[in-house]
Structures are given as structure tokens and as C-alpha cells.
Design brief:
By secondary structure, the protein is mainly α. Helices cover about 60% and strands about 10% of the residues. α3 runs antiparallel to α4 and α5 crosses α6.
């Protein structure tokens, strides 16, 4: 696990979501230590992906659970975050990264009888490249997936 004092970091969507869900004492201690020194920082793309996730979950859920999903979405949007915008410099770096790696390097994701479509895979791949470009332009180490898998 990386040291909190090595931050501040830029967290990609999966890492930021993992931190929010993980309740193990080790991760909670790491997060508390990190937050004493730094604020969580994400790309605007991460905010977009998280809002999309909440909206898709809301649409698929029964009426009785939608208020809980809406509350979680609002709590996410009102938490203290540093959000790096998608500006010209980030767009240029992202375009260069995409040109260097023109094909997604990972296979489609599969979960619960659902295979990721080519369109979904390309969108995920492009979002990941934009988040990586955001980290480069912001001069912040990128935390991808989980704290233990850098």
C-alpha cells in the first residue's frame, strides 16, 4: 500500500469508488491519515462516470430503493473533492496517449452474465486515458484500481 504522505494523488474512478466502499480497518486508517494531509482529488471524468453509475443504478432499481440511491448520489456530489477540469492541456496529452496506444490493451469485462460491448470498452479505455492525462498535467501520481495495486 502506498504511503499517504507520498501524496497528494489523483484517484481514478475505480480507486475512488473502492475507497468509498472499502470498510477494512487498514484502508480506513490509510484514508483517515491521507485526509489529514490532503483532499481527495479526481478528474472531472471520474465525477461524470460516478454520476452515470448512480443514474444507471437508479433507473434499474425498484421505486422503494431509489431514494437511497439519490441520497448516495447527493452525498457524493457534496463531499469535499478537488476536481481537475478537462482543459486544453489535458485534452492534448490525452490525444497523444490515445495515439500512442490506439487499441484498448485489456479484454472486455464480464460480470453477472453481461459482457462489456466494444462501445463500452472503448469508452472506458478513452476515459482511462483522459484520467491518466489529467494526472500528468496536474503532476500528481495516479492511483488506479486499489491502493495495493499501483
Amino acid at each position: 500500500m502506498c504511503r499517504p504522505e507520498a501524496g497528494p494523488f489523483l484517484f481514478d474512478t475505480s480507486a475512488e469508488s473502492w475507497l468509498a466502499r472499502n470498510r477494512t480497518p487498514e484502508v480506513q486508517l490509510w484514508l483517515a491519515t491521507y485526509l489529514k494531509m490532503h483532499q481527495i482529488a479526481v478528474s472531472a471524468v471520474t465525477v461524470s462516470e460516478r454520476v452515470r453509475g448512480y443514474s444507471m443504478l437508479w433507473r434499474k432499481s425498484p421505486e422503494g430503493t431509489r431514494s437511497r440511491i439519490s441520497a448516495a448520489r447527493l452525498a457524493y456530489l457534496h463531499q469535499p473533492l478537488t476536481v481537475f477540469a478537462l482543459d486544453t492541456a489535458t485534452a492534448v496529452v490525452a490525444g497523444e496517449i490515445m495515439a500512442l496506444l490506439p487499441e484498448p490493451p485489456t479484454p472486455p469485462r464480464r460480470a453477472h452474465r453481461h459482457a462489456e460491448s466494444r462501445q463500452e470498452r472503448l469508452a472506458r479505455w478513452r476515459f482511462d486515458r483522459i484520467i491518466a492525462a489529467t494526472a500528468l498535467v496536474a503532476a500528481r501520481p495516479l492511483i488506479h484500481n486499489t491502493l495495493g495495486a499501483q
